[in-house]
Amino acid sequence: MTSPTLLDEWAVLLERRPTFRDVLAPYGEILKAWARGPGLPIPSLRRSREECGERWHRGVPLLAEAPPSVPAEAMEEAVAAALGFLVAVGEDGEAVRRFAEGWDRRAIEPSALFPQRGRFGSATLPAQTGLSPESLGFVAYGGLRPILDAYFADCRPHLGGADWDLGICPFCGAPPGFADIGEDGKRQLVCHCCGATWAFSRLQCPYCGGRRPDEAVRLQGEDREEGYLIEACGGCRGYVKALDRRVRWNGGPALVEDWGSPHLDLVARRKEYWRAVPTLIQLHSPTSA
Question: How many structural domains comprise the chain?
């Protein structure tokens, strides 16, 4: 889904959930930056269906063996919007300033934000900047989304249902941000970092790969909105939020539904579950994550 459409759908969600409007307001600037697109053109990755399939057969995300060369100027607006979000939700201003200064003098390169097989960005960035891993993860996918969306555009049609069965994005390697349950009852995981979707078993945890039925946990918000649920693992304690579109057929895009449901993250957090993609709840209290 294109970023201009995401911005329109975000406006619809805010109309639907007016009590969340002030809490969710900082997201708006990021979506506006995404809608304007990369600051410089980003060529698409050119790989045949066979070349993509060979890498997926080995369990290798495309980004791992074919990272783009991204000029910092292409990400300026999106990174600035993500840093502004962190300031708005209470992240340490000195740490944000250190990141911004490192970015401006190119001590932090765009490649330092690239996903690393199930996590966001370089492991050295927290010590370098003082930002929490959650905040850095948010800057990573907030800054990269327009870039990677464009970069993988020509490869997306090559992904088939049986090509990939791992709980990380087959294109960029990021952890899943949300789960969609379609009209056929099958689950698709969604990547917020590049916008990809891929089929994934409803019986399997995307984090630890566990398949034990007794460890599958389903949570709901206190208001029990139809169609919204939290799919958690009693083994590793990881979770993803999900929308069952058989019930909530008029729900918005996955990213919009994720950002627009912080109350579900609060439910999971209170029960001591975690997720790999940073949440508004985590970013409001990074030291207790």
Answer: 2
Q: Report pTM.
A: 0.93
Q: Which amino acid is at 146?
A: P
Considering the domain architecture, whether residues 144 and 202 belong to the same structural domain is answered as no
Gap between the Cα atoms of 195 and 141, Å rounded: 10
Pair 138, 258 in one domain: no
Same domain? 191 vs 103: no
d(CA 143, CA 78): 5
Cα separation, 62 vs 152, in Å, equals 9
Burial of residue 128, with CB atoms counted within 10 A of its CB: 0-12 exposed, 13-18 middle, 19 or more buried: middle
Distance CA 229, CA 246 (A): 13
Number of H helices, E strands in the chain: 12, 6
**182 shares its domain with 251:** yes
State which residues form the domain around 235: 163-288
**How many C-beta atoms lie closer than 10 Å to residue 255's C-beta?**
24
- Tens digit of each residue's pLDDT (9 = 90 or more) over 128-159: 999 999 999 999 999 999 999 999 999 999 99
User: Is the same domain home to 99 and 205?
Assistant: no
- Whether 169 and 138 map to the same domain: the answer is no
The amino acid sitting at 26 is P
Q: CA 213 to CA 222: how far, in whole Å?
A: 24
Beta strands in 26-85 (DSSP E): none
- Tens of pLDDT, residue by residue over 210-223, are 999 999 999 988 77
Residue range 161-208, pLDDT digits in tens = 888 999 999 999 999 999 999 999 999 999 999 999 999 999 999 999
Tell me the two tokens of residue 149: 């969306």
Last residue of a domain, one of 151, 182, 206: 151
